[in-house]
Specification:
This protein is of the alpha/beta class. It is built from 6 helices and 3 strands. The chain has a single domain (7-200), classed as Rossmann fold. Strands 1-2-3 form a 3-stranded parallel beta sheet, sandwiched between helices. It is globular and about 50 Å long. 38% of the residues are buried.
Length: 202
């Protein structure tokens, strides 16, 4: 199974004739919704309208009578393989949605330079990686960033990247836990990035 090579196919499954979508594919790297689709593929039915995570966010916001904002101004997400944020970004661009796609990156990850400055496509960022790093997010020790081979991230659909110091992400994770939300390091990175985006919004 190539967890990076199938990310481009995510939106092909967006528009379903039926809310009962049968699955016969396996891909763990594209979106959470597709992962769920794989998990129930042994005979179950997919109960939602789409397999794109952002579509489901929009559906839930539309259905929530209390929620005044029906289309998010921002989508903030840390990346491991980059499949989820890229799938969401392609969906947003394809349908002309005004949501800004923001990658929350870790301190020693090369995703910031890869997305913003087109670096690390022909060179490794492994020497820049400082252990232990943030578990499961960021990119560094794996060598060159090659779309479809070592990463699923699509720089063309990401509007902004915010690099967060590891100590700040860890502190944010601790604050979340103190508040009763058992988030990990990616939650900390996402929280700090979201706070930065909110504080600089016009």
């Amino acid at each position: 199974m190539n967890q990076f090579g199938n990310a481009d196919k995510a939106e092909e499954f967006h528009e379903s004739e039926s809310k009962q979508v049968k699955s016969k594919f396996k891909n763990k790297g594209s979106t959470l919704a597709r992962t769920y689709l794989h998990m129930i593929s042994l005979g179950g039915d997919f109960p939602l309208e789409s397999v794109n995570l952002f579509h489901e966010i929009l559906v839930q916001l539309q259905a929530d009578e209390v929620q005044e904002v029906k289309v998010p101004h921002y989508f903030v997400h840390a990346a491991g393989t980059g499949g989820t944020i890229s799938s969401v970004g392609r969906y947003v661009k394809k349908y002309g949605i005004s949501t800004e796609i923001v990658l929350a990156d870790t301190q020693f990850s090369v995703y910031y330079d890869y997305v913003m400055y087109d670096r690390f496509k022909n060179e490794s960022g492994a020497s820049l990686w400082v252990e232990p790093g943030m578990a499961g997010i960021g990119y560094g020790p794996m060598g060159m960033a090659k779309k479809g081979e070592t990463t699923s991230i699509d720089p063309a659909v990401i509007d902004r990247v915010v690099k967060i110091p590891d100590v700040a992400a860890t502190a944010a994770m601790r604050i979340l836990r103190d508040q009763g939300a058992s988030g990990g390091t990616s939650s900390g990175v996402n929280l700090i990035t979201s706070m930065h985006v909110a504080s600089t919004a016009k």
